[in-house]
Q: What sequence folds into this?
């Protein structure tokens, strides 16, 4: 494959001629990276087994990790799902387009490669003009995980996509930086009550305000599952190159533990990076200290999280010590991503 083409596009008012170039690649059975409101996705025709296989090849993604199907209109649900439960209809009316994926019984049009052989499929309608324009121009639903090498932090800019996939994919639609910064919330509508398989850009509290109680799947708050029903459930994800150690607990205790660990690693000759809140920055001494934002601004932390994790790679640190955040609202998704990035290296105080 030749180099990856960068197709710059207006994120608010995408130029049809630019989107048409990317749509032609999809219709030809290949893959394209594109922006959504959450992160950049790596898309292929969701109705083609051969096209979907190119996603797994480009990312180095395990074949038992299902994909999410993106649509631009609820009419596209025909053939993708057996039926739409009434509760799912209420959520579609209230939350679509937006960062919510609904898992339902799959229909006959969905190839097994999309669902990793499961009898369910995750569907969402992204809230981004470029993504919606691309789906419409391609004329097919688009299967898309995040547009990064498997296991790496998800991309929130086209530059992040190119860091991982340049030369491995034909093109990326560059619509600038994404907004939400963490992937969609994945809600299983085949259980009663509905179950959050992956926390994301739509907080649990907003879901419960719309439909009543929802529960968390095993593994959401740590650990793993043998057969994932959603992306983000089984594997180490979102990880920078250096090992990340997550410290959770009361603020003062987190700070004390991270200071102690930083001293220990420094004495071993390691280059230490610290990921912390703006309020904690002055507490630490280390070669690299990066803020994820103010502790009370969870939306801001989510938006910058993956970009900040990638920044540690450029600083070439040997180990990263990260502060946890409160788990209300978007904090549940942020902590899920940090725990996955830590790969089990979590200290709870």
A:
């Amino acid at each position: 494959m030749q180099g990856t083409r960068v197709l710059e596009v207006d994120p608010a008012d995408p130029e049809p001629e630019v989107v048409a170039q990317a749509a032609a690649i999809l219709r030809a059975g290949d893959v394209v990276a594109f922006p959504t409101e959450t992160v950049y996705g790596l898309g292929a025709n969701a109705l083609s087994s051969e096209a979907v296989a190119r996603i797994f090849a480009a990312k180095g993604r395990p074949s038992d990790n299902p994909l999410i199907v993106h649509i631009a209109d609820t009419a596209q649900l025909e053939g993708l799902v057996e039926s739409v439960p009434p509760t799912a209809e209420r959520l579609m009316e209230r939350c679509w387009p937006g960062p919510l994926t609904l898992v339902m019984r799959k229909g006959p049009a969905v190839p097994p490669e999309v669902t990793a052989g499961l009898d369910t499929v995750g569907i969402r309608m992204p809230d981004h003009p470029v993504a919606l324009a691309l789906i419409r121009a391609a004329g097919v639903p688009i299967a898309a995980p995040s547009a990064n090498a498997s296991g790496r932090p998800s991309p929130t800019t086209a530059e992040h996509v190119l860091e991982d996939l340049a030369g491995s994919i034909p093109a990326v639609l560059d619509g600038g930086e994404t907004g939400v910064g963490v992937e969609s919330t994945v809600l299983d509508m085949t259980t009663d009550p509905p179950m959050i398989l992956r926390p994301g850009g739509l907080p649990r509290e907003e879901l419960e305000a719309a439909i009543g109680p929802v529960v968390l799947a095993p593994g959401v708050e740590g650990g793993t599952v043998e057969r994932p029903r959603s992306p983000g459930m089984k594997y180490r994800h979102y990880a920078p190159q250096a090992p990340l150690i997550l410290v959770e607990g009361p603020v003062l205790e987190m700070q004390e533990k991270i200071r102690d660990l930083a001293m220990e690693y420094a004495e071993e000759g390691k280059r230490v990076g610290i990921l912390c809140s703006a309020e904690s920055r002055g507490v630490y001494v280390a070669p690299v200290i990066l803020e994820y934002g103010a502790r009370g601004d969870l939306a801001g932390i989510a938006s910058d999280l993956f970009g900040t994790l990638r920044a540690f790679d450029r600083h070439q640190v040997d180990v990263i010590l990260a502060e946890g955040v409160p788990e209300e609202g978007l904090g549940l998704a942020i902590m899920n991503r940090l725990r996955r990035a830590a790969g089990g290296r979590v200290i709870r105080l």
Notes: The chain has two domains: 5-216, 244-348. DSSP finds ten helices and 16 strands in the chain.
